[in-house]
Amino acid sequence: MHHRLGRRHGIFIIISKIGCAIALWGCAMQAGASNVATLLIGRIVAGFAIGVLSMTVPLYNTEIAPPRVRGFLVGLTQQMLGIGFIVANWVGYGSQFIKSDVSWRLPLGLQLVPAGLLLVGIQFLPYSPRWLLEVGRDDEAREVVYKLHGAGRKVAAEKEYHEMYETIKAETLTRSRRLSDLWATRAMLRRTFVAVGVQVFCQFSGINVLNYFGPQLYESLGVTGGKALLVQGIYGAVGPIANFFFITLILDRVGRKKPLLFGAASFVVTYSILAAVVATNPPTAPGEIDTTNHAAQRFRHYFVSRLQG
Fold it and tell me: Where are the transmembrane segments (predicted)?
């Protein structure tokens, strides 16, 4: 569908008509839930919509971004996710002071706002110039590239257009969309493992467990009540701040591989220390709160900060 209708129309159909509609439906179910079953189904429905968005948006950003800021714009996707977690954490912290079921309906209902804005805003996005070149609509592709560069940058726009033109035309001669091509040769199999492995093992680091169950983890270390939500809010702000400095000052200067290697090495060191701390300071039994395990508490704060950064 993406290649047949274009990234804009792919986004319009998949995200606007399906993704945004499903997101609005799921969020409305959550905010208006009268029982746990409805709430869980709403979460599942909204999660499906998030999957659609997270598949398409980074791809579209990559295709319309000028080379000089491509890394920044793609990194901005993660930055916006981090800001979303900040908003969610602090809305959750503030809502605890509401003495009614609005304390949980309000945070869930606020999810309708970005979904609605996306549904409206997606109508004004330009076509992907790369797709236009793929289907032979070269003049339209040139217009989009010029529009993206803005007035006064005709030379840079023309240069990017010609580079894009030559690349796309060369790719169309050899491109295949068969799934089996991902492992057809040893070289392609290696590329597939690298691309998939980076994503999978980043999730295996446990980052989303901390994002969703951070308050419970803090409570197990003796940080109880509203303080657990407060600490979670502070923790949620660390990642976006670090990510902002990374994508603005580092990413387009040092490339992608070195930061990946540094991050992976940091994880090895951090998790090794964590394993040693847990071995020498075993956790309490489920349901109990340990307020004296200061070593675990201190390292927990360091660990989650490093994980976010």
Answer: 12-33, 39-60, 72-92, 104-127, 193-213, 233-251, 260-279
- CB-based contacts of 97, cutoff 8 Å, min separation 6: 103
Cα–Cα distance, 40 to 44 (Å, whole number) = 6
Whole-angstrom CA distances from 6 to 64, 65, 130, 135, 247 are 12, 16, 9, 9, 28
List per-residue pLDDT tens for the chain, 309 residues long: 555 554 445 444 455 667 788 889 999 999 988 899 999 999 999 888 888 877 777 777 787 877 777 777 777 777 888 888 888 888 888 888 888 888 889 999 998 998 888 888 887 878 788 878 877 888 888 888 888 888 777 888 888 888 888 888 777 777 666 777 778 788 888 888 888 888 888 778 777 777 777 777 777 767 777 787 888 788 777 777 877 877 777 776 777 778 888 888 888 888 788 778 767 766 555 555 555 555 555 555 555 555 555
Give yes or no for a contact between 279 and 210, defined as CB atoms under 8 angstroms apart.
no
Task: Give DSSP secondary structure letters for 253-267.
Answer: HH-SHHHHHHHHHHH
Q: Which positions ≥6 away from 139 have C-beta within 8 Å?
A: none
The DSSP secondary-structure symbol of 282 reads: P
